[in-house]
Design goal:
Length: 409
């Protein structure tokens, strides 16, 4: 059995590569980003993640390699991004297609090609199989296709790689069981083997389920806001019912999974999905709801200048440095639309200056502002709420208990 070549060393590919290598699999990690590969070869991680440094040390002892070139082998896992086309909401499979084509240029006979990137149902049938057939290769002999969708979240990557169950979709049960044995090197939970299209659908459905539940909580927020009710008290009481579990509302939905994957279903089944589309529209509309509420709070407190407003949090969830599709970035687009640029931004997890008005420490951020908008529930602010005692606070995450005046979502 040849080396395992993992294509794409981002938020999914890198920790997956390290987990395989740390558990005895001979791994080569490939990424086209030269700077990223150089950083990893210097023994440095490219993003912060709890517990990943220890896994990296074990992987280095087992001589994991990082390079820009694809490995000549018979085992590949593709973990490249899968965005959607904004106009049609259909998956944009260009990165997967490019990676598959590169694999076919170098792979050995009887290669197992695993797509781990999240893809819309039918993506492998529509985009991947034709590439292989056009190359004159026979699926099931020259190339064995598999889909093994990831199931991890930033902040708990190592824990979830070890403890979450996994799904392996394959044309052949024999090949499915072979790939299952790879993941068993580190996955301690159940690994289910099924067909490819079911595996494709399962990942998208999981994230869509969560998106719909968040949207329900966000719609409750809008209703309660209109009626002058406390949405958190309402949810607390409703959740006392043994079969009710309403999630918590928030300023929007970010990350590369929940905010993206449901659109695949909207794009592929426009005549069927209504609840999914509605949930996406509700959640995508929350940054505008927050923007309008900021205006309302400013009027009520005679704050006339946005230079007195500070946005706390840039990442899409607490205690990680991942900014992909974050509600704050969506909110900043709205600010930009109205040519508002005098406010402050700060996030303790974002170590590089991304914006001209970004503060790099909390003291600078809090100086000279009157209204703090909490958009991310980082431990820094959750555990140091006394810093806000003389500020007006708009808390979109329901974490602040101390302050001069607190507004909730």
């Amino acid at each position: 059995m040849g080396k395992l070549n993992i294509i794409g060393l981002g938020y999914i590919g890198l920790p997956t590569s390290l987990m395989f290598a740390a558990n005895g699999i001979d791994v080569v990690g490939t990424d086209l980003n030269t700077k990223l590969v150089e950083t990893l070869n210097q023994g440095k991680l490219t993003f912060e993640e709890d517990g990943l440094e220890e896994v990296f040390e074990l992987a280095k002892k087992n001589e994991i390699k990082f390079r820009n070139e694809y490995e000549i082998t018979n085992r590949y896992i593709i973990t490249v991004p899968t965005p959607y086309v904004s106009e049609t909401k259909k998956i944009d499979a260009k990165y997967v297609i490019a990676a598959v084509k590169q694999v076919l240029e170098v792979c050995e006979p009887s290669t197992i090609l695993v797509i781990e990137s999240t893809i819309a149902p039918g993506t492998i049938d529509k985009f991947v199989r034709p590439i292989i057939e056009e190359k004159g290769l026979k699926i099931g002999e020259d190339i064995h296709l598999v889909h093994a969708p990831e199931r991890i979240i930033p902040g708990k990557m190592v824990q979830e790689l070890r403890n979450n169950s996994r799904t392996i979709g394959a044309d052949s049960n024999v090949i499915g069981e072979e790939v299952k044995s790879w993941y068993k090197s580190f996955c301690q939970n159940e690994i289910v083997v099924t067909n490819i299209k079911t595996a494709e659908m399962s990942k998208v459905v999981e994230n869509t389920f969560r998106d719909i539940n968040i949207a329900f909580a966000n719609e409750l927020t809008k209703m309660c806001s209109r009626e002058g009710m406390d949405v958190y008290e309402l949810i607390r009481i409703a959740n006392k019912h043994p079969r009710v579990n309403i999630l918590q509302p928030g300023p929007g939905v970010g990350g590369h999974c929940i905010s993206v994957d449901p659109w695949f279903l909207v794009g592929d089944y426009p005549d069927i999905v209504n609840v999914v589309r509605g949930a996406r529209e509700v959640n995508d509309g929350m940054p505008k709801f927050v923007f309008d509420k900021i205006h309302k709070i400013m009027r009520e407190n005679s704050i006339k200048d946005f230079s007195k407003v500070g946005l706390y949090g840039l990442t899409y969830k607490e205690n990680v440095d991942d900014m992909r599709e974050s509600p704050t970035l969506q909110l900043l687009n709205i600010f930009d639309k109205y040519n508002i640029d005098s406010f402050k931004i700060y996030d303790p997890m974002v170590k590089e200056k991304k914006f001209a008005n970004q503060s790099m420490n909390i003291d600078d951020f809090l100086s000279d502002i009157e209204l703090v908008v909490i958009l991310v529930a980082h431990n820094e602010i959750r555990e140091n709420q006394q810093l806000l005692k003389n500020k007006i606070v708009y808390d979109t995450r329901n974490i602040i208990e101390h302050g001069n005046e607190i507004y909730k979502l």
